[in-house]
């Protein structure tokens, strides 16, 4: 595959000494589903705004489809379909009226515009409701209309900024099902930001963002496999005291987190460790959980802290 987006040493500051992005590097391949995962305040939105040509890079280089964004942002913009986190629909207009207004912005008129509208409404299962006002649609259907707008001019790259924020789990699942079908039928490159771990798991590759840094980038599967061991979490109201006792008794180092202790444990040691915990520390242990590494564990592994907002 060929790289369609190249980010080299990209940095950005909103105020002196308060960087929002710190020397970001990544390469996104044509046809890939790439995700930027991280909590609020991690730098995802700033990076998204630069990718969407809403802000010029302060330092570093961003090229999209071989075009330097600083040199020709208008040309780059014609290649992008964008779904923003905040709604961009006029709720007093019908679905078709919203799409026509958007099409005019991209120079689409007459028959060509009508064909593009019908095509996208059909593939997003919106055609029967084309004449309905947006205000009468559910949140999930409104996001589909946003997606239809973004796809109207047949973009090479689809940018999605926290696209399922505010949707219930069923609507979120339906949205990503539509994205999977679109990728299969059109081969469009999808770049998304998300703070939902289950959404990041859908990506071909993810870049973990934290406080303006890109901590790591790889496939979700490989990132979880690199941790290697199971994760042990002990729920307790006395984490500091219990951590010291466990270190002395079991030679097991556990990190103190909100609500408990976290550490790594090999499969063969699980029975012995849990037995000792329940026999010797039952008055302090409120719960024990052991699981295979997930993306929340990956985030902790590469950032040294829990997956929480830094706003």
Structure in words:
By secondary structure, this protein is of the alpha/beta class. It folds into 2 domains: 3-219, P-loop containing nucleotide triphosphate hydrolases (Rossmann fold), CATH 3.40.50; 229-292, Alpha-Beta Plaits, CATH 3.30.70. The protein contains 11 helices and 14 strands. It has helices spanning 44-51, 73-77, 95-105, 110-123, 139-151, 169-186, 197-200, 220-227, 239-250, 270-280, 295-303, and strands at residues 3-15, 18-29, 33-37, 59-64, 67-68, 80-83, 157-161, 189-194, 205-210, 213-218, 230-235, 255-257, 260-265, 287-291. The strands form 3 sheets. Strands 6-7-8-3-9-10 form a 6-stranded mixed β-sheet, sandwiched between helices. A 4-stranded antiparallel β-sheet has the order 2-1-4-5. Strands 12-13-11-14 form a 4-stranded antiparallel β-sheet, covered by helices on one side. The radius of gyration is 23 Å and the shape is elongated. It starts with a strand and ends in an 8-residue tail after the last helix.
